[in-house]
Amino acid sequence: MKFMCFMFDLDGTLVNTITDIAASMNKALALHSFPPLIPSEYTKIVGWGIKRLAFLALPRETQGKAGAEELAATIAKDATRFYAESPLVYSKAYPGMLEAVAELRRKNIKTAVVTNKPDPVARMVVQGLFPFGSFDRIRGDLPGSPRKPDPNVVWDLLMELDVTPHETVLIGDSEIDIQTAHNSNCHALGVSWGFRPRQTLENAGAERIIDNYEELLRFIKDI
Questions:
Q1: Whole-prediction pTM
Q2: CATH number of the structural domain spanning residue 66
Q3: Whether 96 and 150 share a structural domain
Q4: Do both 159 and 213 map to the same domain?
Q5: Average pLDDT value for residue range 198-219
């Protein structure tokens, strides 16, 4: 199949961001007198957006109380501010991802980042780790706009890039990305090096799962 566009998830797919995510959220939790989580705990609850992450980071007994959603929104706002102050202390692109994106550009395949990370921070991370012009579009979470797994966020990008869902690969490390691909009729490509176990991608219905950079590069070169 001839693909004309690759849409990448950010956290756990292009970039290992989990330590910076944990640091900013733990700082926000501490501000409100809640205990921190270790980074590995965050790998299980990231992906649905910063407000959902803040809610899931709260102790179970707090989640069940009245006003928990409002509290989580406040913590999320604080965490976003902390994250924006230092988004790239520990974050690194996964091995080979710069080369993979460069190969796509060499082949004139359109590229985009679609993430539920707040849009300003998403742009800081991408622009801080990838060369200028690596992606045609970067789309993070914006107030009042759809987020993954809502297909509209993908369809909006497809319209901007003038490509169809059947010409597009959506690549990610979580069940959210695979569901987004299915919802938007894009090709669902999972990567096993990210935040979720391989079994989660299989259960979500990934059409193919890539285990390392070399395999991804072969997939790209065969397009």
A1: 0.95
A2: 1.10.150
A3: yes
A4: yes
A5: 96
201 φ/ψ angles, rounded to the nearest 5 degrees: -70, -40
3-class state of residue 210 by DSSP: strand
Per-residue CA distances from 148 to 39, 99, 194 (Å): 23, 26, 17
Q: Output the CA torsion 77→44→135→154 (10° steps).
A: -90
Give the chain's domain count: 2
pLDDT digits 0-9 by tens, 175-187: 999 999 999 999 9
pLDDT at residue 64 above 90? yes
Domain boundary among 37, 52, 85: 85
Same-domain pairing of 201 and 115? yes
Q: What is the pLDDT of residues 132-147, one digit of tens each?
A: 999 999 999 999 999 9
What are the structure tokens assigned to 82, written together?
């902390």
Structure tokens at 184: 């938007």
d(CA 184, CA 200): 20
Same structural domain for residues 189 and 126? Answer: yes
Rg over CA atoms, the chain: 17
Question: Which domain range does residue 186 map to?
Answer: 5-16+92-221
Q: Angle at Cα 205 formed by Cα 212 and Cα 192, nearest 5°?
A: 20
> What percent of the chain shows pLDDT beyond 70?
100
- Is the pLDDT assigned to residue 1 strictly greater than 70? no
160-171: pLDDT as tens digits: 999 999 999 999
- In angstroms, the CA 182 to CA 194 distance is 20
